[in-house]
Amino acid sequence: MAGQYAIATMFFAGFLWVTGALPLAVTALTIPVLLTGTGVYDSMDAALVGFADHIIFLFLAGFMLANAIQKYDIDRRIALYAIAKLGSSPRRLILAIMSVTAVLSMWVSNTATAAMMTPIAVGVLTQVLDRDDLASSQAPPRDGETSEPLTDGGHGDSTAAFTNLQISMLLGTAYAASVGGVGTIIGTPPNAILVGQLNAILDYEIGFAEWFLVGFPVVVVTLPLVWFLLTYVLYPPEVPDVERARATAREQLAAEGELDPRGKRVAAIFAATAGLWMLGGLGDLFEPYLSSVWMTTVFGGEGMTVFGVEGHQGLLYYVMVGVAAIPALVLADTMEWEELVDIDWGTLLLFGGGISLANALADTGATEWIADTVFGGLVGAPIVLVIGAVVLLVVFLTEMTSNSATTSIIVPILISLGSVFSATLGLTDFSTALFLSVAGTIAASFAFALPVATPPNAIVFGSGYVEQRHMLRAGLVLNAVMTVVLTAVIWFLFTFVWPHLLW
């Protein structure tokens, strides 16, 4: 009976997430109420455990670090530098924008990156196109309103025709933010949702470096392909000269001047945090050189530590490193608390609700029943077909909802498929669950056709400088191509890479 109530809660939350009847975070808050009210859990304490999951605090730290980077315009400086150095042709200019967006989205979350890079892309366009030729579906500015290039770009003429350069650059910004977010755990909410649910359901921890070695190859393969399809097939840019945009970028970069001491301290703290995140997953490299006591203290383990206690998660545990960066920012006199707390709390609540729902479905055995019912027909099918079915299903669901909502719903089901497909894939139940859930989570970042699918899509569409028909045309083509490409890439990684990293 408890499993039926857990499934009913999932369908209730899924309906609200799909329809948008309530904000995503508000829907997430209904989950522990329903799980406790229907008796799935006998206390609110058990239902609220997901809201205190460690991955939530990792994202909390990531959001706050992003605030510090944006306060001192470090991200904008990086963008201007890339435009000045790389944007020697229309296609290379788009590639520069997309590359910076993808790299930033791995560390500053794809939502924040898209919000920052969209006005920069519009500003670049105002330097390449005449302002009157920059089309916008929004109303033009009122009398007396002006805007600065390379900051907010302003509104173009609502009667102007949309150029291929404009469409490909803005869509490229959105798509690069989504693709780049695959690279790290903090890059996009689906990654964090997966990590939290794997920990809750399988008691398994994917380290920061482990995920980077899984996600970064996907970024390296797919980002150039998205750029190629946008600029050579779908919307080839026709403007021959982009030198004015490069010159403006150089001028504004020079006007920024040298980073002030506080900004340098922020850059140093961010670089140290990112470096320690990666270093924490490379403990095997140091094992020959460190004693067992220091290995346990620094990288974690069951043995004795230098503190005289037995068992330790490790000083380089990535959540500990991320959370420690926040007091470091304050102690370095770079951020006030009021500046740090201006973050996306709704996303953190969404994580908590998703993890609570996953716990309930796993604890009651509901996910196993769903997995047998939905995917039972694929038992015995070739591995490529299984991967393709998971990728296609996740991409389709994401277009209808959002990547965060889709991941919250589908990941517990994919984890439970371990027992269903283990014989088909020739792996243990655990390895199969891990493989399928990682594959589905990666696919959730590759829905490109509709604004609702991902936050970057929504941000770029909301700017008014592309229309839904442009996104739909590009997105349908990219969805079809990326389903095939992701299936091939994931199969390759599954066969030759992941066995050495994940199981």
From TrEMBL:
Source species, domain of life: Archaea
Region described as Disordered: 135-155
Gene Ontology MF term list: succinate transmembrane transporter activity
InterPro entries: Na/sul_symport_CS (IPR031312), SLC13A/DASS (IPR001898)
Keywords: Membrane, Transmembrane, Transmembrane helix, Transport
Membrane-spanning ranges: 12-35, 47-69, 90-108, 211-235, 266-286, 315-333, 345-362, 374-397, 409-427, 433-453, 474-498
Keyword GTP-binding part of the UniProt annotation: no
PROSITE patterns: NA_SULFATE
Pfam families: Na_sulph_symp
CDD domains listed in its UniProt record: SLC13_permease (cd01115)
GO CC annotations, alphabetized: plasma membrane
Membrane topology of the entry: Multi-pass membrane protein
Cell compartment(s), UniProt: Membrane
Annotated protein name in UniProt: Anion transporter
Protein's organism: Natrinema altunense (strain JCM 12890 / CGMCC 1.3731 / AJ2)
